[in-house]
Amino acid sequence: MVVDGIDETGGTDETVDRLFHALADATRRDILRRCVRGELSVSRLAAAYPMSFAAVQKHVTVLERAGLVTKERRGREQLVRTDPDAVGRARQALDELETAWRARVDRMSGLLTEDAAGTGDSGAPAHDENPDENTTEGPDR
Hints:
Number of strands: 5
Number of helices: 5
Largest sheet: 3 strands, antiparallel
Strand content: 5-15%
Structural class: alpha+beta
């Protein structure tokens, strides 16, 4: 749950937004999957896609800003590695959303159950003793 822009894990809305923005693109998700198996150079990643080296570099930069991968320069190569903790943070953010929505659904279900219990056997809504008191309709209705 987010309170004043900070979620329960201490991340900000901006951090979570960057994370899910990075994961929203199929190429970036594929780069992430490839790097989970082991670190790869940006040039090796670029060879796997029908786009320019610069475009792949930009995708890697988005993943890096989101904290999903880290880059390390070794000689002339930049090696990309997935940060498993960041993937866990994405899972945690989704788990928190699921928990919040399940709680809302449970509350709605409870309200519907209470409402149904108050309607009597016919299932029709309960009526006030004085129907004119809480109505906004005119006398013709």
